[in-house]
Write a sequence for this structure.
């Protein structure tokens, strides 16, 4: 159970970082235009 919790936390962290990066890229693209 502990391992699965750690894995879930890692997946959530990875997803949040990926989402932040995607949002930042889109915002930068819109600012250029």
């Amino acid at each position: 159970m502990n391992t699965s919790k750690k894995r879930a936390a890692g997946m959530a962290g990875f997803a949040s970082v990926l989402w932040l990066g995607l949002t930042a890229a889109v915002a930068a693209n819109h600012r250029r235009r």
